[in-house]
Give the backbone structure.
Amino acid sequence: MRRKNRVKATNTYLVELIRLLKKEARENDAPIWRDVAERLSKPRQRRAEINLSRLNRYTKESDEVIVPGKVLGAGLIDHPLTVAAFAFSDQAKEKILNAKGKCLSIPDLVKLNPKGTNVKILK
């Protein structure tokens, strides 16, 4: 018998991350983590790639944002914010840190905010 929602990814870090997110969604009654897990389960070509200019446009100071994909360095960021993503380009990470922001891994954000309150998903 086959399981329906089986993860097809071969990246072991990604598989463990998806399992962690689904577990945290169940335990903390936080549907945001299930949503992020589903977005990360998509093929790489369909995952989000967000430029800093979009982050700057759709956030305000001290927001918490999660990107179920990669953050790219195109554009400028002029306010501090906390960004959690599956991956960051070197340039994006540098620009976020220069703006007094924070770059976190997704598991770190889950530990800091298990309920996922006031976290925006950018896609």
Q: What stands out?
A: The CA atoms of residues 20 and 53 lie 30 Å apart. The first helix runs from residue 12 to 28. The helical segments are 12-28, 31-40, 52-58, 90-98, 106-112. DSSP finds five helices and five strands in the chain.
